From TrEMBL:
Active site: 52 (proton acceptor), 122 (for glutaminase activity), 158 (nucleophile)
GO BP, one annotated term: NAD+ biosynthetic process
Descriptive protein name: Glutamine-dependent NAD(+) synthetase
NCBIfam families: nadE, PRK13981.1
Lineage: Bacteria, Pseudomonadati, Pseudomonadota, Alphaproteobacteria, Rhodospirillales
Matching Pfam families: CN_hydrolase, NAD_synthase
Domain of life: Bacteria
Binding site for L-glutamine: 184, 190
Pathway(s) it belongs to: Cofactor biosynthesis; NAD(+) biosynthesis; NAD(+) from deamido-NAD(+) (L-Gln route): step 1/1
Naturally occurring in which organism (per UniProt): Azospirillum palustre
Amino acid sequence: MSNDTSANTTSTLRIVCVQANPTVGALQGNFDIVRRHRAQYRGKADLLVFSECFGSGYPLQDLVLRPGFRRDFRAALDALAGEMRGDGGPAVLVGGPLDGAALPYNAAFLIETDGSMKIVLKHTLPNDEVYDEKRVFAPGPLPAPVDFRGFRLGIAICEDFWHGKIAQALAAEGADLLIVPNGSHFRTGKQAVRLAIGRRTVKATGLPVLYVNQVGGQDSLVFDGGSYAMDRAGLVIAQAGFRECEFDIALERGEDGGVDLRRGDVLGMLPNGYPDETEAMYRALVLGLRDYVDKNGFPGVVLGMSGGIDSALSAAVAVDALGAGRVLPVRMPSPHTSAESMEDAERAASLLGTRLLTVPIASAMAAFDGMLAPVFDGLPVPAADTTFENVQARARGMTLMALSNRLGLMVLSTGNKSEMSVGYATLYGDMCGGYSVLKDVYKTIVFRLARWRNTHRPEGLLGPQGAVMPDRIIAKPPSAELREGQTDEQALGAYEHLDAVLATMVEGLNGADRAAELASAAVGQPISAAYAERIAGMTARAQYKRDQSPPGVVVTERTYGPGWRLPVTNHYGL
């Protein structure tokens, strides 16, 4: 499995940490990224470090259980190792699966310039809200340091770093530093946690840390980078932003025998550190949508443009991700659609620079009314009858799907987490689509992101400078406009109260009484237990809808879908 090349020693080791965007299953493409970086840093670096399972893409889910996939990965890995023999390029640390007795291992392969490999196996397997590695990987033994050119590298793959025993074991075995290949997805506040774990680890072990995370979207997960180098004092000497980039670090042996880090001289200054919380969330939405559309080969997206804030923000994210020419907003007015909403939708599309289609649905509503009248004649009408409100929403869904079929564009759903929670959405209507960019974003956060984007446009976004929606869209009371005089808060209460209750129930897993207490403290106003009970009941009853909803970007600690696995048939409720 390995040959010892530690005799090739140096007093200084030059490492380039590569924060790049792999694609699950794209073995040739992922290894070509490795090849390009090796060519770029030939003669300038000793070792390139890539993120967890970079060669195969990550997370692999059940794909890794297929023997043919593992054979193809190993062939691609061996091909790279063969090319590296004597070519003058740097060594590489790259990850992927390794066959085991029953299940494969999650492995990191240190490929030397003679083509030999040293292999480190992941010991601690996550089994949490979005990862189920215990189902598809076998745990490896406690890792030992790897000798490399006069230094002992402690390689801790992702979860192994998040649990202190691995770092302490590596330190006890004489590691000089910790190298941490990661596949750590974005959620709000995550970067602060990563840095805190780094400082805690440095304090406990006395070892510097090179933390290398991937960046890019993979289905619902967005990997936000945030790679960093932390010295023995716990100081961050390099930190990557929310984009593909790399930074170089020089390792030097200190007078006390320990390893000191300094910024290398290959790349110069690293621009743009990690963004603040609001920008990070917005960038996650943009990156998640961009990679979902591009990696799955869609030419663009089509979405309903109602004149409301959810569709306006979804359209802005889409234009920032894909460019105005790949986004098609569609107005679909009914007799209940206000002139104000029509104007606001047109103005938002104009600000974004997109085309705007208008397809009235009154004739579809009349057709369904005529079709169903003989069937409904004489049947009792429920007290809260939403039949023809939902016909409107489904007529719009049918229209968008027809455009998708004809033009090849993916339908972008525009619902938010508040609505998904309580079922304030129509199956096969506004819930239809291939992706839901706001699926994990509460309504109060939708307002915050809309205000932020109207005054900010960070580097790398493809949308326009300046406002992307009229202020009136943000200021007016939200409404589905499925009947006269309808507003969302008539049905749901104030969004500030609703979201506070939902956050304590969903993220905190609290019951209604405790949720009412915590939500009251959060908003500084009393929220009754009766209101919390009503919201809990609505949320429990809506599980069957959420199970049929499209995927969307994960931004919270507990997202619907992979992080929320409740039975539909459930007499306990929440």
